[in-house]
Amino acid sequence: MISKEQLAKLIDHSLLNPSVTDDDVKKACQEALQYGFAAVVVNPSHVPIVARELKGSPVKACSVVSFPFGLSTTAAKVHEARIALEEGAEEIDMVMNFSALKSGHSDLVLNDIKEVVQEARRVYGKVIVKVILENCYLTENEKRRACQLTMRAGADYVKTSTGFGKSGATIEDVRLMRKVVGPKFGVKAAGGIRTVEQALQMIDGGANRIGASASASIVESLKPS
Amino acid sequence: MISKEQLAKLIDHSLLNPSVTDDDVKKACQEALQYGFAAVVVNPSHVPIVARELKGSPVKACSVVSFPFGLSTTAAKVHEARIALEEGAEEIDMVMNFSALKSGHSDLVLNDIKEVVQEARRVYGKVIVKVILENCYLTENEKRRACQLTMRAGADYVKTSTGFGKSGATIEDVRLMRKVVGPKFGVKAAGGIRTVEQALQMIDGGANRIGASASASIVESLKPS
Prior knowledge:
Two copies of one chain form a homodimer.
Chain A: H1 4-8, E1 11-15, H2 22-35, E2 39-42, H3 47-54, E3 60-65, H4 74-86, E4 91-95, H5 98-102, H6 106-124, E5 128-132, H7 140-152, E6 157-159, H8 171-181, E7 186-190, H9 196-205, E8 209-212, H10 215-220
Parallel strand pairs in A: 1-2, 1-8, 2-3, 3-4, 4-5, 5-6, 6-7, 7-8
Helix pairs in contact in A: 2-3, 4-6, 6-7, 7-8
Protein backbone atom coordinates (compact mmCIF):
# COMPACT_ATOMS: atom_id res chain seq x y z
CA MET A 1 0.00 0.00 0.00
CA ILE A 2 1.20 3.48 -0.92
CA SER A 3 1.83 6.04 1.84
CA LYS A 4 0.77 9.71 1.78
CA GLU A 5 4.41 10.71 1.23
CA GLN A 6 4.79 8.30 -1.68
CA LEU A 7 1.55 9.47 -3.27
CA ALA A 8 2.53 13.14 -2.91
CA LYS A 9 5.83 12.45 -4.71
CA LEU A 10 3.86 11.26 -7.75
CA ILE A 11 1.76 14.41 -8.00
CA ASP A 12 2.46 17.42 -10.23
CA HIS A 13 0.54 20.15 -8.43
CA SER A 14 -0.97 22.16 -11.28
CA LEU A 15 -2.16 25.75 -11.34
CA LEU A 16 -2.95 26.28 -14.99
CA ASN A 17 -6.24 28.16 -14.91
CA PRO A 18 -5.30 31.40 -16.67
CA SER A 19 -7.15 33.71 -14.28
CA VAL A 20 -5.05 32.87 -11.21
CA THR A 21 -3.07 35.68 -9.58
CA ASP A 22 0.48 35.84 -8.22
CA ASP A 23 -0.90 35.14 -4.74
CA ASP A 24 -2.61 31.95 -5.93
CA VAL A 25 0.69 30.79 -7.41
CA LYS A 26 2.57 31.48 -4.16
CA LYS A 27 -0.07 29.59 -2.17
CA ALA A 28 0.26 26.59 -4.48
CA CYS A 29 4.02 26.59 -3.94
CA GLN A 30 3.56 26.58 -0.15
CA GLU A 31 1.19 23.59 -0.44
CA ALA A 32 3.70 21.77 -2.63
CA LEU A 33 6.49 22.33 -0.10
CA GLN A 34 4.25 21.21 2.76
CA TYR A 35 3.13 17.97 1.09
CA GLY A 36 6.26 17.22 -0.93
CA PHE A 37 4.69 17.09 -4.37
CA ALA A 38 6.87 16.22 -7.37
CA ALA A 39 6.47 19.59 -9.05
CA VAL A 40 4.41 22.76 -9.38
CA VAL A 41 3.16 23.21 -12.94
CA VAL A 42 2.33 26.73 -14.13
CA ASN A 43 1.95 28.88 -17.21
CA PRO A 44 5.20 30.47 -18.46
CA SER A 45 4.64 33.94 -17.03
CA HIS A 46 4.38 32.45 -13.52
CA VAL A 47 7.67 30.53 -13.69
CA PRO A 48 9.79 33.21 -11.93
CA ILE A 49 7.48 33.15 -8.89
CA VAL A 50 7.56 29.36 -8.67
CA ALA A 51 11.33 29.18 -9.15
CA ARG A 52 11.82 31.68 -6.32
CA GLU A 53 9.35 30.01 -3.94
CA LEU A 54 10.69 26.47 -4.49
CA LYS A 55 14.38 27.37 -4.53
CA GLY A 56 16.55 24.85 -2.67
CA SER A 57 13.68 22.37 -2.25
CA PRO A 58 13.25 18.99 -3.98
CA VAL A 59 9.95 20.21 -5.53
CA LYS A 60 10.52 21.04 -9.20
CA ALA A 61 9.33 24.14 -11.03
CA CYS A 62 7.56 22.99 -14.20
CA SER A 63 6.41 25.19 -17.09
CA VAL A 64 3.91 24.31 -19.77
CA VAL A 65 4.83 25.18 -23.36
CA SER A 66 2.34 26.09 -26.13
CA PHE A 67 -0.44 25.51 -23.67
CA PRO A 68 -3.18 24.44 -24.06
CA PHE A 69 -3.50 24.28 -27.87
CA GLY A 70 -0.06 23.09 -28.99
CA LEU A 71 -0.39 25.00 -32.26
CA SER A 72 2.56 27.34 -31.94
CA THR A 73 5.30 26.84 -34.50
CA THR A 74 8.25 24.67 -33.51
CA ALA A 75 10.50 27.73 -33.34
CA ALA A 76 8.08 29.40 -30.93
CA LYS A 77 7.90 26.28 -28.74
CA VAL A 78 11.70 26.03 -28.58
CA HIS A 79 11.94 29.71 -27.70
CA GLU A 80 9.22 29.48 -25.04
CA ALA A 81 10.92 26.43 -23.47
CA ARG A 82 14.30 28.17 -23.44
CA ILE A 83 12.92 31.25 -21.66
CA ALA A 84 11.14 29.05 -19.09
CA LEU A 85 14.37 27.17 -18.37
CA GLU A 86 16.34 30.40 -18.12
CA GLU A 87 13.79 31.72 -15.65
CA GLY A 88 14.10 28.66 -13.45
CA ALA A 89 11.87 25.89 -14.80
CA GLU A 90 13.30 22.39 -14.26
CA GLU A 91 10.66 20.37 -16.12
CA ILE A 92 8.68 21.12 -19.29
CA ASP A 93 5.15 19.94 -20.16
CA MET A 94 4.79 20.76 -23.86
CA VAL A 95 1.64 20.29 -25.92
CA MET A 96 2.03 18.16 -29.04
CA ASN A 97 0.84 19.67 -32.34
CA PHE A 98 -2.19 17.38 -32.53
CA SER A 99 -3.61 19.23 -35.54
CA ALA A 100 -0.45 18.28 -37.44
CA LEU A 101 -0.78 14.68 -36.25
CA LYS A 102 -4.39 14.57 -37.45
CA SER A 103 -3.34 16.10 -40.79
CA GLY A 104 -0.82 13.30 -41.31
CA HIS A 105 2.37 15.28 -40.65
CA SER A 106 4.19 12.79 -38.43
CA ASP A 107 7.57 14.30 -39.34
CA LEU A 108 6.47 17.72 -38.15
CA VAL A 109 5.18 16.26 -34.86
CA LEU A 110 8.41 14.32 -34.31
CA ASN A 111 10.62 17.29 -35.09
CA ASP A 112 8.49 19.62 -32.96
CA ILE A 113 9.11 17.48 -29.87
CA LYS A 114 12.72 16.66 -30.74
CA GLU A 115 13.72 20.32 -31.05
CA VAL A 116 12.23 21.22 -27.67
CA VAL A 117 13.92 18.20 -26.04
CA GLN A 118 17.28 19.04 -27.60
CA GLU A 119 17.04 22.69 -26.60
CA ALA A 120 16.14 21.71 -23.03
CA ARG A 121 19.01 19.21 -22.77
CA ARG A 122 21.46 21.59 -24.44
CA VAL A 123 20.76 24.26 -21.85
CA TYR A 124 20.23 22.28 -18.66
CA GLY A 125 21.25 18.64 -19.12
CA LYS A 126 18.72 16.62 -17.21
CA VAL A 127 15.44 18.44 -17.84
CA ILE A 128 12.40 16.15 -17.90
CA VAL A 129 10.16 16.80 -20.92
CA LYS A 130 6.56 15.57 -20.91
CA VAL A 131 4.48 15.64 -24.07
CA ILE A 132 0.76 16.29 -23.76
CA LEU A 133 -1.10 14.32 -26.42
CA GLU A 134 -4.58 15.77 -25.69
CA ASN A 135 -6.17 12.36 -26.21
CA CYS A 136 -9.73 13.73 -26.38
CA TYR A 137 -9.01 14.83 -29.96
CA LEU A 138 -7.26 11.62 -31.06
CA THR A 139 -8.36 8.27 -32.43
CA GLU A 140 -6.81 5.14 -30.90
CA ASN A 141 -4.37 4.87 -33.80
CA GLU A 142 -3.40 8.51 -33.41
CA LYS A 143 -2.78 7.95 -29.68
CA ARG A 144 -0.46 5.03 -30.49
CA ARG A 145 1.39 7.04 -33.11
CA ALA A 146 1.72 10.00 -30.72
CA CYS A 147 3.29 7.74 -28.08
CA GLN A 148 5.75 6.30 -30.60
CA LEU A 149 6.74 9.74 -31.91
CA THR A 150 7.23 11.04 -28.35
CA MET A 151 9.57 8.14 -27.57
CA ARG A 152 11.50 8.55 -30.82
CA ALA A 153 11.88 12.28 -30.17
CA GLY A 154 13.69 11.57 -26.90
CA ALA A 155 11.16 13.00 -24.46
CA ASP A 156 10.54 11.41 -21.04
CA TYR A 157 6.78 11.18 -20.55
CA VAL A 158 3.57 11.01 -22.52
CA LYS A 159 0.78 12.92 -20.78
CA THR A 160 -2.90 12.30 -21.39
CA SER A 161 -4.49 15.76 -21.40
CA THR A 162 -4.19 19.49 -20.81
CA GLY A 163 -7.29 19.56 -18.60
CA PHE A 164 -8.75 22.20 -20.95
CA GLY A 165 -9.90 19.96 -23.81
CA LYS A 166 -13.36 18.44 -24.02
CA SER A 167 -12.38 15.63 -21.64
CA GLY A 168 -9.47 14.60 -19.42
CA ALA A 169 -7.58 11.48 -18.37
CA THR A 170 -9.26 8.08 -18.72
CA ILE A 171 -8.04 4.79 -17.32
CA GLU A 172 -8.35 3.21 -20.79
CA ASP A 173 -5.99 5.81 -22.25
CA VAL A 174 -3.48 5.35 -19.43
CA ARG A 175 -3.47 1.57 -19.99
CA LEU A 176 -3.08 2.03 -23.75
CA MET A 177 -0.24 4.54 -23.35
CA ARG A 178 1.59 2.30 -20.84
CA LYS A 179 1.23 -0.64 -23.23
CA VAL A 180 2.65 1.32 -26.17
CA VAL A 181 5.56 2.98 -24.35
CA GLY A 182 6.59 -0.06 -22.31
CA PRO A 183 7.50 -0.30 -18.63
CA LYS A 184 10.39 2.19 -18.48
CA PHE A 185 8.93 5.32 -20.09
CA GLY A 186 6.92 7.94 -18.18
CA VAL A 187 3.12 8.13 -18.31
CA LYS A 188 1.41 11.13 -16.73
CA ALA A 189 -2.33 11.14 -16.19
CA ALA A 190 -3.86 14.62 -15.94
CA GLY A 191 -7.18 16.35 -16.49
CA GLY A 192 -10.19 15.88 -14.25
CA ILE A 193 -8.40 13.90 -11.52
CA ARG A 194 -9.99 15.25 -8.33
CA THR A 195 -10.22 12.28 -5.93
CA VAL A 196 -7.75 9.86 -4.38
CA GLU A 197 -9.74 6.98 -5.90
CA GLN A 198 -9.19 8.36 -9.41
CA ALA A 199 -5.50 8.97 -8.69
CA LEU A 200 -4.95 5.43 -7.38
CA GLN A 201 -6.83 3.95 -10.34
CA MET A 202 -4.57 5.85 -12.77
CA ILE A 203 -1.44 4.68 -10.92
CA ASP A 204 -2.78 1.13 -10.94
CA GLY A 205 -3.36 1.45 -14.70
CA GLY A 206 0.26 2.43 -15.31
CA ALA A 207 0.63 6.16 -14.60
CA ASN A 208 3.79 7.15 -12.73
CA ARG A 209 2.92 10.85 -12.50
CA ILE A 210 -0.45 12.45 -11.74
CA GLY A 211 -1.40 16.01 -12.63
CA ALA A 212 -3.96 17.58 -10.31
CA SER A 213 -5.10 20.84 -8.77
CA ALA A 214 -6.90 19.32 -5.78
CA SER A 215 -3.59 17.73 -4.81
CA ALA A 216 -3.76 18.46 -1.07
CA SER A 217 -7.26 17.03 -0.79
CA ILE A 218 -6.22 13.93 -2.77
CA VAL A 219 -3.33 13.21 -0.41
CA GLU A 220 -5.35 13.99 2.72
CA SER A 221 -8.08 11.58 1.58
CA LEU A 222 -5.71 8.61 1.35
CA LYS A 223 -6.82 5.99 3.89
CA PRO A 224 -4.16 3.96 5.70
CA SER A 225 -4.39 0.34 4.52
CA MET B 1 -29.26 49.16 -43.59
CA ILE B 2 -26.09 47.14 -44.00
CA SER B 3 -25.62 44.92 -47.09
CA LYS B 4 -24.28 41.36 -47.12
CA GLU B 5 -21.03 42.62 -48.64
CA GLN B 6 -20.63 45.29 -45.96
CA LEU B 7 -21.37 42.81 -43.18
CA ALA B 8 -18.88 40.28 -44.59
CA LYS B 9 -16.15 42.95 -44.59
CA LEU B 10 -16.59 43.35 -40.82
CA ILE B 11 -16.15 39.65 -40.09
CA ASP B 12 -12.93 37.93 -39.02
CA HIS B 13 -13.60 34.34 -40.04
CA SER B 14 -12.09 32.34 -37.19
CA LEU B 15 -10.88 28.75 -37.13
CA LEU B 16 -9.30 28.48 -33.73
CA ASN B 17 -10.52 25.12 -32.45
CA PRO B 18 -7.22 23.28 -31.97
CA SER B 19 -8.39 19.98 -33.44
CA VAL B 20 -8.96 21.31 -36.98
CA THR B 21 -6.92 19.82 -39.80
CA ASP B 22 -5.14 21.42 -42.75
CA ASP B 23 -8.17 20.65 -44.92
CA ASP B 24 -10.48 22.53 -42.52
CA VAL B 25 -8.16 25.54 -42.73
CA LYS B 26 -8.15 25.47 -46.53
CA LYS B 27 -11.95 25.25 -46.60
CA ALA B 28 -12.24 28.27 -44.30
CA CYS B 29 -10.00 30.25 -46.66
CA GLN B 30 -12.19 29.37 -49.63
CA GLU B 31 -15.27 30.57 -47.72
CA ALA B 32 -13.49 33.80 -46.82
CA LEU B 33 -12.59 34.45 -50.46
CA GLN B 34 -16.14 33.66 -51.58
CA TYR B 35 -17.82 35.98 -49.07
CA GLY B 36 -15.12 38.66 -48.80
CA PHE B 37 -14.53 38.46 -45.06
CA ALA B 38 -12.04 40.88 -43.46
CA ALA B 39 -9.62 38.17 -42.39
CA VAL B 40 -9.11 34.49 -41.60
CA VAL B 41 -7.91 34.01 -38.02
CA VAL B 42 -5.95 30.86 -37.17
CA ASN B 43 -3.48 29.40 -34.71
CA PRO B 44 0.21 30.09 -35.55
CA SER B 45 1.01 26.70 -37.05
CA HIS B 46 -1.74 27.20 -39.65
CA VAL B 47 -0.49 30.61 -40.84
CA PRO B 48 1.52 29.28 -43.82
CA ILE B 49 -1.59 27.58 -45.24
CA VAL B 50 -3.72 30.69 -44.85
CA ALA B 51 -1.06 32.99 -46.30
CA ARG B 52 -0.78 30.73 -49.37
CA GLU B 53 -4.54 30.36 -49.88
CA LEU B 54 -5.30 34.08 -49.50
CA LYS B 55 -2.31 35.38 -51.47
CA GLY B 56 -3.18 38.32 -53.71
CA SER B 57 -6.68 38.73 -52.22
CA PRO B 58 -7.95 41.53 -49.98
CA VAL B 59 -8.72 38.97 -47.22
CA LYS B 60 -6.05 39.23 -44.52
CA ALA B 61 -4.23 36.31 -42.88
CA CYS B 62 -4.45 36.82 -39.11
CA SER B 63 -2.57 34.86 -36.44
CA VAL B 64 -3.39 34.65 -32.76
CA VAL B 65 -0.49 35.03 -30.31
CA SER B 66 -0.28 33.38 -26.86
CA PHE B 67 -3.70 31.92 -27.49
CA PRO B 68 -5.93 31.35 -25.59
CA PHE B 69 -4.31 31.95 -22.17
CA GLY B 70 -2.10 34.99 -22.75
CA LEU B 71 0.37 33.78 -20.12
CA SER B 72 3.46 33.43 -22.25
CA THR B 73 6.31 35.76 -21.34
CA THR B 74 6.60 39.00 -23.31
CA ALA B 75 9.70 37.69 -25.09
CA ALA B 76 7.80 34.59 -26.20
CA LYS B 77 4.86 36.70 -27.45
CA VAL B 78 7.17 38.95 -29.45
CA HIS B 79 8.93 35.94 -30.92
CA GLU B 80 5.65 34.20 -31.80
CA ALA B 81 4.33 37.36 -33.48
CA ARG B 82 7.53 37.78 -35.47
CA ILE B 83 7.39 34.22 -36.79
CA ALA B 84 3.72 34.61 -37.74
CA LEU B 85 4.48 37.80 -39.66
CA GLU B 86 7.46 36.20 -41.39
CA GLU B 87 5.24 33.31 -42.42
CA GLY B 88 2.66 35.64 -43.95
CA ALA B 89 0.31 36.91 -41.23
CA GLU B 90 -0.91 40.47 -41.84
CA GLU B 91 -2.86 40.97 -38.60
CA ILE B 92 -2.18 39.80 -35.03
CA ASP B 93 -4.75 38.98 -32.34
CA MET B 94 -2.71 38.71 -29.15
CA VAL B 95 -4.04 37.71 -25.75
CA MET B 96 -3.38 40.19 -22.93
CA ASN B 97 -1.70 38.83 -19.79
CA PHE B 98 -4.89 39.08 -17.73
CA SER B 99 -3.32 37.29 -14.77
CA ALA B 100 -0.77 40.12 -14.57
CA LEU B 101 -3.58 42.69 -14.83
CA LYS B 102 -5.45 40.99 -11.99
CA SER B 103 -2.23 40.86 -9.93
CA GLY B 104 -1.83 44.64 -10.28
CA HIS B 105 1.07 44.64 -12.77
CA SER B 106 -0.18 47.32 -15.17
CA ASP B 107 3.37 48.08 -16.32
CA LEU B 108 3.92 44.48 -17.35
CA VAL B 109 0.60 44.42 -19.25
CA LEU B 110 1.42 47.69 -21.02
CA ASN B 111 4.93 46.60 -21.94
CA ASP B 112 3.71 43.17 -23.08
CA ILE B 113 1.41 44.77 -25.66
CA LYS B 114 3.81 47.56 -26.59
CA GLU B 115 6.64 45.16 -27.43
CA VAL B 116 4.44 43.05 -29.70
CA VAL B 117 3.12 46.18 -31.44
CA GLN B 118 6.60 47.60 -31.93
CA GLU B 119 7.94 44.30 -33.27
CA ALA B 120 5.01 44.02 -35.68
CA ARG B 121 5.43 47.60 -36.93
CA ARG B 122 9.21 47.27 -37.13
CA VAL B 123 8.89 44.27 -39.41
CA TYR B 124 5.87 45.07 -41.55
CA GLY B 125 4.79 48.68 -41.06
CA LYS B 126 1.02 48.65 -41.10
CA VAL B 127 0.15 45.45 -39.22
CA ILE B 128 -3.12 45.68 -37.26
CA VAL B 129 -2.74 44.42 -33.69
CA LYS B 130 -5.83 43.46 -31.69
CA VAL B 131 -5.61 42.78 -27.98
CA ILE B 132 -7.90 40.14 -26.49
CA LEU B 133 -8.90 41.18 -22.97
CA GLU B 134 -10.80 37.97 -22.09
CA ASN B 135 -13.48 39.98 -20.29
CA CYS B 136 -15.02 36.93 -18.59
CA TYR B 137 -12.15 37.00 -16.09
CA LEU B 138 -12.19 40.79 -15.50
CA THR B 139 -14.09 43.16 -13.25
CA GLU B 140 -15.53 46.31 -14.81
CA ASN B 141 -12.59 48.36 -13.52
CA GLU B 142 -10.13 45.84 -14.93
CA LYS B 143 -11.90 46.02 -18.32
CA ARG B 144 -11.54 49.81 -18.32
CA ARG B 145 -7.88 49.61 -17.34
CA ALA B 146 -7.23 46.98 -20.03
CA CYS B 147 -8.75 49.25 -22.68
CA GLN B 148 -6.63 52.20 -21.54
CA LEU B 149 -3.42 50.15 -21.48
CA THR B 150 -4.16 48.76 -24.96
CA MET B 151 -4.57 52.29 -26.32
CA ARG B 152 -1.43 53.56 -24.58
CA ALA B 153 0.55 50.61 -25.94
CA GLY B 154 -0.26 51.64 -29.51
CA ALA B 155 -2.40 48.66 -30.56
CA ASP B 156 -5.39 49.07 -32.89
CA TYR B 157 -8.27 47.11 -31.38
CA VAL B 158 -9.55 45.82 -28.08
CA LYS B 159 -11.22 42.43 -28.49
CA THR B 160 -13.73 41.02 -26.02
CA SER B 161 -12.88 37.31 -25.78
CA THR B 162 -10.95 34.32 -27.04
CA GLY B 163 -14.08 32.20 -27.39
CA PHE B 164 -12.42 29.63 -25.09
CA GLY B 165 -13.00 31.29 -21.72
CA LYS B 166 -16.06 30.68 -19.56
CA SER B 167 -18.14 33.14 -21.61
CA GLY B 168 -17.85 35.20 -24.78
CA ALA B 169 -18.83 38.63 -26.10
CA THR B 170 -21.65 40.56 -24.41
CA ILE B 171 -23.34 43.69 -25.67
CA GLU B 172 -22.67 45.38 -22.32
CA ASP B 173 -18.93 44.79 -22.69
CA VAL B 174 -18.91 46.08 -26.26
CA ARG B 175 -20.70 49.26 -25.16
CA LEU B 176 -18.30 49.73 -22.24
CA MET B 177 -15.23 49.17 -24.42
CA ARG B 178 -16.47 51.59 -27.10
CA LYS B 179 -17.14 54.18 -24.42
CA VAL B 180 -13.64 53.85 -22.94
CA VAL B 181 -11.69 53.79 -26.22
CA GLY B 182 -13.71 56.50 -27.96
CA PRO B 183 -15.05 56.62 -31.51
CA LYS B 184 -11.83 56.12 -33.49
CA PHE B 185 -10.28 53.02 -31.90
CA GLY B 186 -11.14 49.45 -32.94
CA VAL B 187 -13.52 47.25 -30.96
CA LYS B 188 -13.81 43.57 -31.94
CA ALA B 189 -16.60 41.44 -30.53
CA ALA B 190 -15.82 37.70 -30.55
CA GLY B 191 -16.81 34.56 -28.71
CA GLY B 192 -20.23 32.92 -29.03
CA ILE B 193 -21.48 35.08 -31.93
CA ARG B 194 -23.40 32.58 -34.06
CA THR B 195 -26.38 34.49 -35.50
CA VAL B 196 -26.84 37.57 -37.66
CA GLU B 197 -28.99 39.10 -34.90
CA GLN B 198 -26.10 38.83 -32.42
CA ALA B 199 -23.66 40.25 -34.97
CA LEU B 200 -25.88 43.24 -35.77
CA GLN B 201 -26.47 43.89 -32.09
CA MET B 202 -22.69 43.98 -31.46
CA ILE B 203 -22.18 46.36 -34.40
CA ASP B 204 -25.01 48.54 -33.13
CA GLY B 205 -23.33 48.58 -29.70
CA GLY B 206 -20.07 49.85 -31.16
CA ALA B 207 -18.13 46.89 -32.55
CA ASN B 208 -16.40 47.49 -35.89
CA ARG B 209 -15.08 43.95 -36.25
CA ILE B 210 -16.84 40.67 -35.48
CA GLY B 211 -15.06 37.37 -34.82
CA ALA B 212 -17.09 34.28 -35.77
CA SER B 213 -16.84 30.73 -37.04
CA ALA B 214 -20.38 30.51 -38.44
CA SER B 215 -19.53 33.47 -40.66
CA ALA B 216 -21.10 32.17 -43.88
CA SER B 217 -24.35 31.37 -42.13
CA ILE B 218 -24.38 34.81 -40.45
CA VAL B 219 -24.02 36.60 -43.80
CA GLU B 220 -26.51 34.34 -45.57
CA SER B 221 -29.09 35.00 -42.85
CA LEU B 222 -29.04 38.78 -43.35
CA LYS B 223 -32.48 39.88 -44.53
CA PRO B 224 -32.72 42.71 -47.06
CA SER B 225 -34.26 45.76 -45.36
